[in-house]
Design brief:
Length: 224
């Protein structure tokens, strides 16, 4: 059976990520929540199901500043949090309404944030970010694109696929290799390390037999 072609992963630049994270207004309740969600979605490379499924008890901001993620196939991983993510999360927790729902992120009605809810929030802030950085408007930004973006940036920074696989919670390196195909860095290094074949200058001199044949075709002999 022929293996299906795999498209290259889409990702955002650092500038586009920053414009997106800066889009929510942190002075509002929803803005504090949205900024924390965007920070965590990108920096922890979370699948949308992992993000909206987070509970308060999976977050540790008191000692190690980590997040306990339960991913595909119930595979678990504990990730350290960036300082910026910790700041955003603390700002959200300071204004988060006290509800029986133990979900980390709540919607406007105080219930667990849904997948479609976060997709709507993301789309709204992409539109705001595009006013500052128009290039983001040319891309289809989904929750998974944030995950891809983190993986691409981490791959470029560490040059270690194993670390990227551990961060993303991949069961094997085969899933992580897609970021190699999308990153031109190593291909450019390979190109620079390989010398192109040199061509010796010279002039083409046709043989006498070829010249005689061409003349004969230009002046064909008349048949008797």
């Amino acid at each position: 059976m022929k293996k299906a072609d795999e498209a290259l992963v889409a990702s955002l630049t650092r500038g586009e990520i920053q414009a997106l994270i800066d889009a929510p207004d942190p002075r509002t309740l929803s803005g504090a929540r949205d900024r924390a969600m965007l920070h965590l979605s990108f920096s922890a490379a979370l699948r949308v199901s992992e993000l909206v499924g987070l509970r308060l008890d999976q977050l540790d901001l008191r000692s190690r500043c980590t997040i306990h993620v339960i991913g595909k196939g119930r595979r678990e991983r504990v990730l350290p949090l960036w300082k910026e993510s910790v700041v955003a999360l603390r700002a959200w927790l300071a204004v988060r309404q006290q509800r029986r729902d133990e979900a980390l992120f709540l919607n406007a009605t105080g219930l667990t944030m849904t997948r479609s809810g976060f997709e709507y929030i993301l789309g709204k802030h992409v539109a705001t970010a595009a006013q500052r950085l128009p290039s983001i408007a040319t891309k289809r930004v989904t929750p998974h694109v944030l995950r891809h973006s983190c993986a691409m940036h981490m791959r470029q920074a560490t040059r270690d696929l194993r670390k990227v696989a551990l961060w993303l919670g991949h069961a094997s390196l085969q899933s992580t290799e897609t970021y190699l195909r999308a990153d031109p860095t190593e291909k450019l290094e390979a190109l620079a390390a390989t010398a192109a074949p040199t061509l010796q200058p010279g002039k083409f001199r046709p043989p006498d037999r070829l010249i005689a044949m061409l003349k004969e075709q230009r002046h064909p002999q008349k048949l008797c």
